Amino acid sequence: MSLAFRRVVTWLRGLFALLFCAVAIAPVPVRAHEVTPAIADFSVKDGQIMLALRLNVEAFVAGINLDGVTDTNQTTRSADYDELRALEAGELEPMVRLFAEDWLETFSIHAGGPVVLTVTRIEIPAVGDVNLPRASFLDLTAEIPPGAGSLRITWPKGSGGVVLRQNGVEEPYTGYLQGGETSPPIPLSGGAAKTPVEAFMEYIPVGFTHILPKGLDHILFVLGLFFLSPRVKPLLLQVSLFTVAHTITLALGALGMVNVNPAIVEPLIALSIVFVAAENVFARKLHSWRSFVIFGFGLLHGLGFASVLGEFGLPPSQFLPALIGFNVGVELGQLAVIAAAYLGVRLWFGRHPKYRGRVAIPASVTIAMIGSYWFVERVFL
Question: What are phi and psi of 164, to 5 degrees?
């Protein structure tokens, strides 16, 4: 290893340590514009369904189509959303009621016949830190037709994802619906809890979509690993270390044994992208110390996965199969990224003598610049 390279590595390590300290002491906001799924808890008693919704109501009132959206800043109505978040509860509530009148017409429940929902309560928290999203609550009720033994719920199109949870029965149903999707028949008396295989299969796409298309920061980190060398062995070693590490913290986080504030985790994930991509510019092979760094970053990314998984509420009765399914989905997403990069770049240019100078280094510089922007955005904006 040349003296110049050693100096560059030392500089990168020092910069990383400095930025790490800056994250730890700065007043870092949570990613306030990140879209999280709504949660719908429902129960049926005395012929009446009671449905409690927890959702980011400002995004709905702003008219944002949440299907496939991971960040409200990616939409044309982000400014309206930000203004609504700054309104006091008394100012926002009339807007929520007007929105609900039209929205409930697309919120379909069928139980041997159509079920008409009405709003019985709206709870909007007081304005606190506008950099933090606030979860509001809508209580909905409806009469269930006599003799109905089951029901099906259609989550409105454009409403993003929802975690649907049945309460008050044995073996309750728990599921995840995207906008426009309809649940399977849910017995009112219970017994619709998923089997281990069903829970496993349902959470595979949840993990996969967290990488493709939603996990752009994780995609860039994997690409940072990809562009180190055109050889397969270093790539497989890095990806394996990353996988083992994030599996550990994903499991610990999902079990509630480890809990780190996303205000710290998310900027550091951006910083990990910068570090790996910048190192690609100066390193030509996988050094032993880089392996330890990648393992550490894998632990960090696992905490990010765990925070996302926590929003979905794993079914208690099938916790382990659902957790494994989510992790399998994440791995399939990562492999899909690597396969696409290999077929689109390395297969054609990997053996070219100028591959590193004309492909790997420019790509790594671009990745580092994007990660740097995200770091600044998550810390200071």
Answer: -105, 120
Q: What is the value of pTM for the model shown? A: 0.70
Q: Are 245 and 293 in contact (CB under 8 A)?
A: no
Query: Angle at which helices 216-226 and 196-211 pack, to 10 degrees?
Result: 70
Q: For residues 29 and 129, give the distance between their C-alpha atoms in angstroms, rounded to a whole number.
A: 9
- What are 189-228's pLDDT values in tens digits? 988 888 889 889 988 988 898 888 878 888 999 999 888 8
Report the run of H or E that residue 37 belongs to, with start and end: none
d(C-alpha 56, C-alpha 181), whole Å:
19
Interatomic CA distance for residues 337 and 223, integer angstroms: 8
Task: State the maximum Cα–Cα separation within the chain, in Å, rounded to a whole number.
Answer: 82
> What single-letter amino acid sits at 89?
A
Token pair in block for residue 190: 């219970």
Going by C-alpha positions, the residue among 287, 168, 300, 146 that lies closest to residue 229 is: 287
Is residue 129 exposed (0-12), middle (13-18) or buried (19+ Cβ within 10 Å)?
A: exposed
